[in-house]
Design brief:
single chain, alpha/beta, seven-stranded mixed β-sheet, 26% helix
């Protein structure tokens, strides 16, 4: 896969929203203005959101192998009292590219989201809640190889890449390697790991 985007390429790159507040004694969520907000990213999350700009839209050169500069960006919609983290995670990237974050779908609406994604050519980044990311993959139809059935709660550092391949999709994972502690390997289902 090349880094440039052509009209006949159809790639969906899915990330989990960046770091969130933990337990009462852990990092706190903060708004872009620095106000405490349990529905926002932590400081590390904001750092990752900024670093994602350099990953997907570097100021020099092209994104790393396996990734493309997006021409569309989605974030999970939110209402009052819900997580803003998916949209916050991709807002700096959208700003760099002069795009709006499309947030008309919320967690639980993966079937509707995926229907729109499969009809939209080009390169798309989707920032979503980790529990529901496998639902996006499931609604794509034929995906080879099969993605993991679950996204672990402690992984914020991977991009799931789905590239159109005939009538189906080719799946790959790209480690972000943006912050200290990011892991250099993909997500693996525990069932498959124990058999290896």
């Amino acid at each position: 896969m090349t880094s440039g985007t052509s009209e006949d390429e159809h790639v969906i790159m899915v990330i989990r929203h960046a770091e969130k507040p933990g337990h009462a004694d852990g990092p706190r969520g903060i708004t872009p203005d620095g106000e405490a907000d349990k529905h926002s990213l932590t400081v590390d999350g904001w750092v990752r959101a900024g670093a994602l700009v350099g990953l997907f839209a570097p100021s020099r050169g092209e994104p790393p192998a396996g990734l493309l500069r997006p021409n569309t960006i989605y974030g999970s919609g939110f209402g009052r009292g819900q997580s803003k983290r998916s949209v916050q995670t991709v807002s700096p990237l959208a700003a760099r590219l002069g795009l709006d974050v499309i947030n008309r779908y919320a967690e639980g609406e993966e079937a509707r989201l995926t229907k729109e994604l499969t009809a939209r050519p080009g390169a798309t980044v989707v920032s979503w809640h980790h529990e529901a990311i496998p639902e996006i993959a499931a609604h794509l139809g034929e995906v080879t190889p099969a993605p993991p059935a679950n996204w672990p709660g402690d992984r914020f550092d991977v991009v799931w890449v789905f590239a159109r391949n005939g009538g189906g999709w080719r799946f790959a994972q790209v480690p972000q390697l943006l912050l200290p502690g990011d892991l250099p390997y993909p997500i693996v289902d525990p069932d498959h790991a124990s058999k290896a």
